[in-house]
Write a structure and sequence with these properties.
Elements (H helix, E strand, L loop, with lengths): L6 H34 L3 H29 L1 H18 L6 H15 L2 H12 L2 H33 L1 H22 L11 H7 L15 H5 L2 H32 L7 H27 L4 H16 L12 H29 L5 H30 L4 H21 L16
Helix pairs in contact: 1-3, 1-4, 1-5, 1-6, 1-7, 1-10, 2-3, 2-4, 2-14, 3-4, 3-5, 3-7, 5-6, 5-13, 5-14, 6-7, 6-11, 6-13, 10-13, 10-14, 10-15, 11-12, 11-13, 12-13, 12-15
Length: 427
């Protein structure tokens, strides 16, 4: 079979599409929240517990998803995951109460948990170190594309055919990706369309082996500071992104009086900016590496720039009814978050052996989901109690990235590439 040039970027395209579908499915409920809250008489606190259900399942399953992917591989694991989350997404159409939606969200969280461990593990296998941040930024930008597509199509479907149709149609898209994945994806060493020269490039900087290596015990992973660096980074900053995904439509509805059709343009603007930030953040550190910067300097410089760019979001509550001023500041913050996230994910591929990447991403993702799970009900109760004051929320979210980077630097002052064993990643 004739080799396909630049095959690794086609693989990256598959990961991009999966992430986009993942985020469409998880964002449908947030977009429909104002409509459903009025129809089903939800309070902000009840919606917070619905979000809690998704994040609880997501965090719990991330531990096992990453481990299972390391044991059984991404091809089978990713296929099972997208079946589970697509069926769960469609099951939202059957819900008629807050508890029913919570159950559907729990199932959705179980399936969607495998996405990022599978994507980062695939990037580790298919890309050399100098291209991983860019590849991660591209696949991670799928989350923003999903967040752009959702407000374009979901309100129209909901208004024309009802909110149940929005869940059914978006959930069914995952099965189209499944067919493409099973047909096209293989490991680099097994892919019939991969040229020998590209395989050699992918293996750059690593020692080739034909001997399957055993899975690394969890006890060893928790003893490594690289695991804690990633987990702390996720724990402190993931709730910010969950807030943007699940609460922004409610913010636009409550603070600026936008209905489900009117909020499409502001949301698309915000997530377009996030898309640029995701690719730009990955490009920045990859570009610095190509210019001869050390891994430590390139990653930390990119993350510091992103952390500083988030700070102005603290001013959103001072803008009053200035819709586009708020959109501009939130757009900058989401772009910076995604640039931060692209580099944070890449740190795992940088510092951890490839056979442990899925497990470490799962551990860190669990930490982020637990933090988001705890934060969602608190936001809901605060909004109910304060009458919808978002100011303290934006104040906290504008400062947390600098805090996270400081803690990560204290844990590992110099980021170094993974060696042949986890012991070389220890402090």
């Amino acid at each position: 079979m004739k080799p396909l040039p630049h095959l690794r970027w086609y693989i990256c395209g598959l990961l991009f599409l999966a992430t986009a579908i993942n985020y469409v499915d998880r964002q449908v409920l947030g977009l429909l929240k104002p409509m459903l809250a009025r129809e089903l008489n939800w309070s902000e606190a009840e919606y917070g517990w619905i979000a809690f259900s998704f994040q609880g399942a997501y965090g719990l399953m991330l531990l096992f998803a990453g481990r299972l992917l390391d044991l059984f591989g991404t091809r089978t694991g990713f296929a099972v995951a997208i079946v589970v989350w697509s069926v769960a997404g469609m099951a939202h159409a059957l819900a008629r109460s807050a508890s029913g939606f919570a159950a559907a969200r729990f199932a959705l969280g179980i399936g969607e948990a495998a996405n990022f461990p599978a994507c980062i593990k695939t990037v580790t296998e298919w890309f050399p170190a100098r291209e991983r941040a860019l590849a991660t930024g591209i696949l991670n930008s799928g989350s923003n594309v999903g967040a752009i597509v959702a407000p374009l199509v979901v309100p129209i479907i909901a208004v024309k055919w009802g909110w149940q149709a929005a869940f059914l149609l978006t959930g069914a898209v995952g099965f189209l990706w499944l067919a493409l994945w099973l047909w096209f994806y293989r490991k680099p060493e097994e892919h019939p369309r991969l040229a020998p020269a590209e395989l050699a490039f992918i293996r750059e900087g690593r020692e080739a082996t034909t001997i399957p290596l055993p899975a690394i015990p969890w006890s060893s992973l928790f003893a490594v500071r690289a695991t804690w660096v990633f987990a702390i980074g996720k724990f402190l900053t993931d709730p910010v992104w969950w807030f943007y995904l699940f609460w922004l439509p409610g913010f636009l509805d409550r603070t600026h009086g936008l209905n489900i059709l009117q909020m499409g343009v502001p949301l698309i603007t915000i997530y377009l900016a996030a898309d640029v930030g995701s690719i730009g953040g990955g490009w920045l550190s990859s570009s610095l590496l190509k210019r001869g910067w050390s891994l430590n300097a390139a990653r930390k410089t990119a993350m510091l720039i992103c952390a500083l760019a988030v700070v102005p979001v603290m001013l959103v509550s001072r803008l009053g009814d200035n819709l586009w001023g708020a959109v501009a500041l939130i757009s900058l913050a989401t772009a910076a978050h995604q640039g931060w996230s692209a580099n944070l994910f890449t740190l795992v591929a940088d510092m951890v052996p490839s056979r442990a990447v899925g497990s470490v991403v799962g551990i860190g993702g669990t930490a982020g989901a637990i933090s988001g799970m705890l934060t969602s009900p608190l936001i809901g109760y605060w909004l109910d109690w304060s009458g919808g004051s978002y100011g303290p929320v934006f104040l906290c979210f504008g400062t947390v990235y600098l805090l996270a980077l400081g803690v990560m630097h204290l844990l590992i002052s110099t980021f170094r590439p993974a060696g042949q064993s986890l012991g070389e990643s220890r402090a």
